[in-house]
From TrEMBL:
Example GO molecular function: hydrolase activity
Ranges where the Glycoside hydrolase family 2 immunoglobulin-like beta-sandwich domain occurs: 199-303
Lineage: Bacteria, Bacillati, Actinomycetota, Actinomycetes, Micrococcales
InterPro entries given in the database record: Beta-gal/glucu_dom_sf, Beta-mannosidase-like_N2, Beta-mannosidase_GH2, Galactose-bd-like_sf, GH, Ig-like_fold, Ig-like_GH2
Similarity section: Belongs to the glycosyl hydrolase 2 family.
PANTHER family, per the entry: BETA-MANNOSIDASE
E.C. number(s) listed in UniProt: 3.2.1.25
Identification of the protein by name: beta-mannosidase
Reactions the enzyme catalyzes: Hydrolysis of terminal, non-reducing beta-D-mannose residues in beta-D-mannosides
The entry's keywords: Glycosidase, Hydrolase
Amino acid sequence: MLERRELHDGWSVTAAAGPVPDGLAGVVIPAAVPGCVHTDLLAEGLIPDPYRGVNESLLAWIGLVDWTYRTTFAWAPDGHDRHDLVFDGVDTVAEISLNGQVLGDVANQHRSYRFPADQALREGDNDLVVRFRAPVPYANAQSLTLGARPRPYPLPYEAIRKSACNFGWDWGIATFTSGLWRPVRLESWSDARLAEVRVTATPDGAPDAGGGTVAVDVRVERAADATEPLSVLVAVNGPGIPADAIPTADAEVQGDTARVTLSLAEVQRWWPAGHGDQPRYVVDVRLAGDGIRDATHRVVGFRTVRWDTTPDAAGTPFTLVVNDRPVFVKGVNWIPDDALPVRVDRARYERRLRQAVEGNLNLIRVWGGGIYESDDFYDLCDELGLLTWQDFLFACAAYPEEEPLRSEVEAEARENIVRLASHPSLVLLTGNNENLWGFEDWGWQRRLDGASWGAHYYYEMFPALIDELAPHVPYTPGSPFSPGGGWDGAAQTGPHPNDEAHGTMHLWEQWNRRDWPTYREHRPRFVAEFGWQGPPTWTTLTESLDDAPLTPESPGMIVHQKAMEGNVKLTDGLLPHFRVPGDMETWHWAMQLNQALAVRTALEHFRSWAPHTMGAVVWQLNDCWPVTSWAAIDGEGRAKPLFHALRAAFAPRVVTIQPRDAGLAAVLGNDTDHDWTGTLRVRRLSMDGSEWDAAELPFHVAARGSLTLVLPAALAVPVDAAAELLVADTGDERGFWFFAEPRDSALPAPHLRLTAEGVDGGTLVTVTADALVRDVTLLVDKVHPDAHTEEGLVTLLPGESVEILVTGAGTLAADALADPRVLRSANQLVVR
């Protein structure tokens, strides 16, 4: 049986060359593996926290330094024929040697490496050394060799197979990491091992009944001179399978491959979150010769997936269909959850992904400028029903197609297709982020002057590899992408990649140049990126900065604002709706609220056009450090008001009021398995709650459907726009329409009363409004850094109350929660 021995102990790291500070030259530091130089230096107290204050620039030297990792491990002959050193992740450019013998050179963070070590191993102590080259000068040198390519940032991240955002992004710190960031081990084996295992679970019949088939494709590696017959044994266990009747099947290995298929009489379907349960099955795979030589397993789910792109009268849809059911995608983009990704463990993934489920999300898009996440990430997505959309790791730049990158790209793509394809959550692989769009609109063609830019990867290599290794996984060449588009060797063909009538679209003009109500001018078939900035929670902000005084433009704030003219855009985006507050804490609330209103407005609009529009993927769920950004959850894992906007807009049932050609309309969305029937009561009210007009509209919304009810003109037209609003109620769900922007409205002072009592799970807060109050939100991190509120952005009519559960911090005092710095509303930004 193959034996695996982790080699994670006894490592040290030292600076080998480059601009090393005097106090660190020649210093040998204990090193954690998996880990990186930054975490080792931090553990020894040798560098300040790069996330704090203005420290980022103080630590840029780390990416200019060569680092050497070394360890010693004992070994004795164990009877095995082969011994391989396996590195699951090396960041990024390094020479690996054992006992002075070079095993190989590596230059790709996104793949693993295996080196036969038999000739170098010796009985007793063995010296393993990994010599890293500094990533920044390496990338610069490669850029000269390969030729400069268009990109939005100074450093040539496209010239090195390393996480692009490691060089900094418009929300990210530049860290320039080096290290053994994933496990290292010695594998010892005899005769043969499993070199590649691909498992596909395919259901039969209708979604509510039927069996399924498990197909296992295996490639084996044999030791030199090994001739014994081999077979592959497969067993499947899971829901509905009796412990004493586990189905099995086997097949002989022919050459170096084998295929085993196993039929199950009855299987349970795997469904996305909000659509059903997530039953999973364990597929055990064993390689047998003279005994069991190797074994592994995969956890699978039975479901069908396709994207409907059948042209219609309006263009080309992009509709996800799971188990023959169209699914409205409620998505978020995902970036690495820490700029030092080695610090993200399974528990942290689970916290973040459970937050996603709490936010009524059903899809996570892993963005192409980050990393292929660890197995824990995808396993948790399977468990929680969170669909995954995985970009190949290319973002916002033209990428060379020449060697040595070409072979590295193929190796990383092949490995990760195989690694991810068995996950039931995986519903899309995408060639890149925004590169097809960039080639068309960002001046690349002139600057490239005929040089390669990545088209071969997106239009040829990746689809060919998927067809070979995982034909059941859907693929698109890029995001955004219009179905029907292609590459003829000189130009892209078909519709423009970012055409809103076709496929996926990115909407960034609102944030960059226009105001957020203009989202309503667009009717995309599917929105894969859009967003609005806001600062992190107050606790995260103040704990990470040392500015005195703290202002929107103070030094630390500027270091923690990476977007081009970010603060200018924040101000320009606020002024049409609110005036800019004069104090920092109110400025913070105003920008957070405006972020939430912008995204909520967009999501309600997009959802109101279903099934024409069948999904929206917000930029972004998470942050990788404390920063002003587009995230709903900040770098310390605290939810911003935007999180409540996602949760409300993506709720199973919603009522919104939307402008239509015929006037205002109430749109009811029903993303449940049950029809929704009732009477919608629509009222036009004054700010004091008095009723100007009303109508009752019976409705019936089919399961997973929507309904648009045009409102009577007399009801939908105000007498005094500044002092009136519309309220649409079903009894359980409610939508609002304000005829004037808050700054131009007659919103009264926020007369709120608050009580609090300790309950199981936290503090139950009751907020009562004596006057109309918009977007009541508790910024509970100011009371306790671990507190989290399950409701926010609640609008209350005069005399109404709302109960809000605050978790994570035990029982909190009512007077602290009632502090107007904590108990926030839009009214505070209007009344002067």
